[in-house]
User: Which sequence fits this backbone?
């Protein structure tokens, strides 16, 4: 997901490959995502919405599991430093789900398909099935399809949060 105003080619350059946390997270405060426990449930929304796959680069077919909190990396305290890598989803379904729960303005975004290798760091929203990658090629760019968005909204409701 890229803002319409930004040229996707910048994702191939080092300065375009940093991911900031959403909102303001001050270093050292107790982590809100996991309530300071260091653990949180992970939902791979790509797999939840597509039936799951052992070849999924995010979850390897685990789909839903308890694991280290990606925001605090298990330490229970916020680490709000930008992380090296571009936040992506392995499927369109996972990406649409993420845009919808975030209430993103769909008309202000374009969907960029990338070829990439996994980054070393973990995405802030890894528990939603996001991953950090270092893009090597832009394969395509398309606007958000409201029909698909409506479909994903219905399928998300069918999966449920539990
Ligand atoms: Zn998965
Ligand atoms: Zn945490």
Assistant:
């Amino acid at each position: 997901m890229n803002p319409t105003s930004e040229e996707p080619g910048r994702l191939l350059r080092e300065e375009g490959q940093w991911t900031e946390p959403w909102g303001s997270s001050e270093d050292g405060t107790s982590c809100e995502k996991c309530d300071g426990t260091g653990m949180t449930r992970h939902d791979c929304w790509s797999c939840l919405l597509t039936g799951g796959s052992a070849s999924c680069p995010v979850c390897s077919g685990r789909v839903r599991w308890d694991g280290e909190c990606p925001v605090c990396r298990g330490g229970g305290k916020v680490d709000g430093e930008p992380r090296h890598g571009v936040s992506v989803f392995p499927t369109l379904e996972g990406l649409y789900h993420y845009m919808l729960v975030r209430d993103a303005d769909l008309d202000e975004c374009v969907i960029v398909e990338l070829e990439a290798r996994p980054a070393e760091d973990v995405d802030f929203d890894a528990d939603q099935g996001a991953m950090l990658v270092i893009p090597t090629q832009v394969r395509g760019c398309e606007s958000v399809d409201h029909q698909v968005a409506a479909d994903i909204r219905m399928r998300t409701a069918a999966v449920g949060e539990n």
The mean pLDDT is 92. The first helix runs from residue 45 to 50. DSSP finds three helices and eight strands in the chain.
